[in-house]
Amino acid sequence: MTLSRPNAPTASSLREKYRNSFAEVRAASVALAAPLSAEDQCIQSMPDASPTKWHLAHSTWFFETVLLQPHAAGYVSFDPRFQYLFNSYYEALGPRAPRPQRGLVTRPSNDEVMAYRAHVDAAVASFLAGADDATWEEIAPIVALGLQHEQQHQELVVTDILHAFSCNPLLPAYRTATGPSLRLAAPLPPVRWLKQAGGTVQIGHDAAVDAAIFAFDNETPRHDALLRPYAIADRLVLCGDYLRFIEDGGYRRPEFWLSDGWAQVQANGWQCPAYWLASDDPRLAFQLSATGAHSSAAGWHVFGLNGVRPMDPEAPVAQLSFYESAAYAEWAGTRLPTEFEWEAASSDPDLQQATGHVWQWTRSSYDPYPGFRPMPGIAAEYNGKFMVGQVVLRGGSVATPAGHTRPTYRNFFPPAARWQFTGLRLAKDL
Q1: Same domain, residue pair 203 and 61
Q2: Are residues 159 and 215 in the same domain?
Q3: pTM for the whole thing?
Q4: Do residue 156 and residue 200 come from a single domain?
Q5: How many domains does the chain have?
């Protein structure tokens, strides 16, 4: 497989960079799985999610299949059956196990998957150490893609196990909470509207200018977009903001909802964000009794990485679908920004919470940019074939690995998805 190189440093600097990055990224995946039991790592709570064990194996499969097998002479596969078992959606690489049945794969065991990772890690480390300059020219972009791919699965490890835990009546915590569990009531910070002039703006990644920065093919090519004058909120929508929408009957009033969104509300009984617990939720009563808390502690609570915690009005609202986000914006008399407005405004120094909190739904469908060309070879299936029926999100979440995103990064999910750390920022016309 041939890809355009993300940068053009010397072979020795590439060697050092990728050897260090490979070790760090691979160790980070194992660390994310460390709090989980073998039972935790095998569970699949819905077809859209995957078991932790599968993520650990699939990210290993990627390096074995895309890097080692085609390029490392003499490499011996750990287990040829894993080619079928841990392929995700690469049609060019043959058949694969059905995605909805990944939770049924109790074998190989966790120990075998870790042995698989160790086998591939050792082979990659040896390959990177011994590759000559010509080989580095060819494999550097493949290694870069593999690292970015693994970081995407690191976020999915967190969000997928959180969804699995949300289905457990015990609502277990992924990690131990630190800091106070309840803030004193205080007025929410006001929204400041940041005026943007609009006009013709440059959107997307320019490989010729930003050659040292990795970007996926769906971020290219850089192109002109025409924007009308608009304003964008300086901060995200917070839990306290969203609570007012709920209290105003937002989930009972169809006038705020897109038709498909209202159908989702009716079909699935949506009444609040996915991981909110109302004061009369029996799971909440069980949680309070187990901790010795009194009924006076009841009220809205939120299930998250630290387990069940009192709802923090100043925390960005999360686990929202696009439909809920659009309905809230309609209720607020505003709208969601387009992905082009979001990217253009991301350079505004007054824009807060751009990344590291929640992915932010936009009003843009996930379409190819003008002149888009997918990566060649196997990687052609990475993004382009999903460009239908999806909505673009921008920013980055609390579960996104540090340094993984950039202002041009385009995440995407179906509009009804609500198990990720997804929220919203408002915009309006001027």
Answers
A1: no
A2: no
A3: 0.94
A4: no
A5: 2
Domain that holds residue 233: 193-239+317-429
Same domain, 49 and 121: yes
Q: Are residues 202 and 153 in the same domain?
A: no
In a domain, 267, yes or no: no
132 & 72 share domain: yes
Question: CB 249: neighbour CB atoms within 10 A?
Answer: 10
Residue 140 and residue 201 in one domain: no
pLDDT in tens, the chain (430 residues): 434 444 455 667 778 888 999 999 999 999 999 999 999 999 999 999 999 999 999 999 999 999 999 999 999 999 999 999 999 989 888 889 999 999 999 999 999 999 999 999 999 999 999 998 889 889 999 999 999 999 999 999 999 999 999 999 999 999 987 665 555 556 788 999 999 999 999 999 998 888 788 999 999 999 999 999 999 999 999 999 999 999 999 999 999 999 999 999 999 999 999 999 999 898 888 777 766 555 445 689 999 999 999 999 999 999 999 999 999 999 999 999 999 999 999 999 999 999 999 999 999 999 999 999 998 888 888 998 999 999 999 999 999 999 999 999 999 999 999 999 999 999 999 9
One domain, residues 84 and 120: yes
Q: What φ, ψ does residue 186 adopt, rounded to 5°?
A: -155, 150
User: What dihedral do alpha carbons 214, 219, 225, 229 form, nearest 10°?
Assistant: -80
